[in-house]
């Protein structure tokens, strides 16, 4: 198969991209609108991109009609968000929070989850998630302006909350305890339970 992106449809390119760029970690983002209402949504265009300062980037795509999602509108308005760990025990809630709801309706209520206050941002964090990253928006970079176009939300991590039960004796996070999930193509997800280790070359 060969796809010339300049000749392919947007959806064809999107589907092939998410089918082959795998696994993709999930940014499970809480944000606030101007009225203080909480939004919760998962994004699989996400990763960590630096450590000094700690930087994460997630990308809320424009909807298929070209409009902005609530999460993007919220971070544009408040310049804050929280990343909550998408873990196997909360997989159903992660998936449910992707549902399109009327503007101003909170996915937190839909999923039955609860909130805790953050320390340095106004945005609350998901109490049931074993890790929460409080973030300040440093920059938002639109890439394109049509349906499914990217918006790179660059966030500086200012506080990291980690449930002590997720730690190994070394003090590092144990992936066997954290058990994050990630996105593949279509309706498929993967687990971080089939692990192997290799020493980095010296």
Give a brief rundown of this model.
With 202 residues, this protein is of the alpha+beta class. The chain is 17% helix and 33% strand.
Throw out a few tags for this protein.
5 helices; Flavin_Rdtase-like_dom; Pnp Oxidase, Chain A; alpha+beta; 12 strands; 3-stranded antiparallel beta sheet; 7-stranded antiparallel beta sheet; globular; Conserved protein of DIM6/NTAB family; FMN binding; flavoprotein; about 200 residues; oxidoreductase activity, acting on the CH-NH group of donors, NAD or NADP as acceptor; single chain
Characterization of this structure:
There is one protein chain. By secondary structure, the chain is α+β, with helices and mostly antiparallel strands. The protein has a single domain, classed as Pnp Oxidase, Chain A. Helices cover 17% and strands 33% of the residues. The chain is built from 5 helices and 12 strands. The strands form 3 sheets. Strands 3-2-6-9-10-5-4 form a 7-stranded antiparallel sheet, covered by helices on one side. It is globular, with a radius of gyration of 17 Å. The mean pLDDT is 96. Keywords: Flavoprotein, FMN. InterPro entries: Flavin_Rdtase-like_dom, Split_barrel_FMN-bd. It comes from Singulisphaera acidiphila (strain ATCC BAA-1392 / DSM 18658 / VKM B-2454 / MOB10). One of its GO terms (molecular function) is oxidoreductase activity, acting on the CH-NH group of donors, NAD or NADP as acceptor. Residues 20-169 form the Flavin reductase like domain.
């Amino acid at each position: 198969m060969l796809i010339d992106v300049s000749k392919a449809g947007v959806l064809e390119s999107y589907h092939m991209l998410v089918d082959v760029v795998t696994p993709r970690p999930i940014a499970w983002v809480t944000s606030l609108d101007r009225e203080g209402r909480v939004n919760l949504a998962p994004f699989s265009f996400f990763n960590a991109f630096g450590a000094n300062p700690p930087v994460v980037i997630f990308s809320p795509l424009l909807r298929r009609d070209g409009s902005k999602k609530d999460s993007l509108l919220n971070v544009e308005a408040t310049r804050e968000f929280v990343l909550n760990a998408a873990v196997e025990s909360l997989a159903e809630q992660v998936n449910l929070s992707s549902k399109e709801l009327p503007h101003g309706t909170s996915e937190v209520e839909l999923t039955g989850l609860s909130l805790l206050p953050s320390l340095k941002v106004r945005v609350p964090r998901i109490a049931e998630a074993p890790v929460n990253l409080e973030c300040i928006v440093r920059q938002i970079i639109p890439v394109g302006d049509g349906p499914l176009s990217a918006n790179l939300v660059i966030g500086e991590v200012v506080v990291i909350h980690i449930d002590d039960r997720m730690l190994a004796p070394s003090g590092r996070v144990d992936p066997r305890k954290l058990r994050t999930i990630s996105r593949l193509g279509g309706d498929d997800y993967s687990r971080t339970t089939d692990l192997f280790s290799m020493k980095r070359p010296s």
